């Protein structure tokens, strides 16, 4: 006899599936989210979909206006600036603090060394032209892995919890930037990779001031790239 999937587990799976699609911009800002269509696509009843959309609405990822269909929340210039302002306040200091823990932890330091090696390979490939799909996926994972390493080093701190609150919006904005521009453009990949390498190298060398400056510059550059992508998208 097949056991029923616990209701809580099903709700969580539906929520995570929709959230992942929104963050990755598989569902783009402004897309209509029909409960009936989504429930059919996911093979579930409307109830867990409705509950998932309510959670996503509370997080600001979905607009669920009364008497209207839910939509993926738009990404405005004000949204982008606000998220990056918060990130610039938190991430340089968070990475500086994490650096001390990372270089003293054999596993975390080893993970960072591997990231450095992968980033160098990506850099060399980007110098020759657009990346292959597998290489591009690895390039995207480096940024995510770097953030995860910082999170593990900070453990369950207040600073880490604050960063987690903006992380979903940060990932969605980044995915939007990738989707709204030539995502495989070697110039963009090369610039990002150089910035990642700079941050990694400053962490490994225990250079606190260097870490803060490298992260701050990376965020400023990322903000400019995102605003440019937002402007280009508005012209289409």
Concise description?
The protein is mainly α and about 240 residues long.
Any overview of this molecule?
By secondary structure, this protein is mostly helical. Helices cover 76% and strands 3% of the residues. It is built from nine helices and three strands; from the N terminus they run H-E-H-H-E-E-H-H-H-H-H-H. Strands 1-3-2 form a three-stranded antiparallel beta sheet. It is globular and about 55 Å long. The mean pLDDT is 88.
β-strand percent reads: under 5%
Roughly how much helix do the residues carry, as a percent range? over 70%
Q: What's the count of strands? A: 3
Radius of gyration: 19 Å
| SSE string, helices as H and strands as E | HEHHEEHHHHHH
Annotation field: number of helices: 9
Q: How can the largest sheet be summarized?
A: 3 strands, antiparallel
- The residue-averaged pLDDT reads 88
For this structure, the quaternary state is single chain
Distance between the termini: 54 Å
**Strand ordering within the main sheet:** 1-3-2
Based on CA inertia axes, which overall geometry fits? globular
Low-confidence stretches: none
State the secondary-structure class. Answer: mainly alpha
Please give a handful of descriptors for the protein shown.
3 strands; mainly alpha; 3% strand; 3-stranded antiparallel beta sheet; 236 residues; 76% helix
Topology record:
Blueprint: H1 7-23, E1 32-33, H2 35-42, H3 46-58, E2 62-63, E3 70-72, H4 77-104, H5 106-128, H6 133-154, H7 158-179, H8 186-204, H9 208-234
Antiparallel strand pairs: 1-3, 2-3
Helix pairs in contact: 1-3, 2-3, 4-5, 4-6, 4-7, 4-9, 5-6, 5-8, 6-8, 7-9, 8-9
């Amino acid at each position: 006899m097949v056991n029923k999937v616990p209701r809580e587990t099903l709700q969580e799976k539906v929520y995570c599936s929709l959230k992942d699609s929104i963050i990755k911009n598989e569902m783009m800002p402004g897309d209509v989210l029909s409960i009936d269509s989504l429930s059919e696509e996911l093979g579930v009843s409307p109830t867990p979909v409705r509950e998932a959309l309510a959670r996503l609405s509370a997080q600001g990822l979905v607009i669920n206006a009364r008497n209207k269909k839910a939509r993926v929340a738009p990404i405005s210039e004000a949204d982008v600036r606000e998220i990056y302002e918060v990130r610039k306040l938190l991430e340089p200091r968070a990475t500086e603090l994490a650096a001390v823990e990372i270089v003293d932890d054999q596993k975390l330091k080893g993970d960072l060394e591997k990231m450095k090696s992968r980033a160098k390979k990506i850099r060399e490939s980007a110098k020759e032209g657009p990346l292959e799909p597998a290489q591009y996926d690895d390039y995207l994972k480096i940024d995510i892995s770097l953030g995860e390493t910082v999170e593990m080093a900070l453990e369950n701190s207040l600073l880490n919890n604050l960063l987690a609150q903006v992380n979903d919006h940060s990932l969605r904005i980044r995915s939007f930037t990738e989707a709204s521009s030539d995502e495989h453009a070697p110039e963009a990949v090369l610039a990002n990779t150089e910035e990642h390498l700079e941050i990694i190298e400053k962490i490994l060398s225990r250079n606190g001031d260097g870490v803060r400056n490298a992260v701050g510059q990376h965020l400023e550059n990322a903000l400019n790239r995102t605003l440019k992508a937002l402007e280009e998208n508005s012209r289409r």
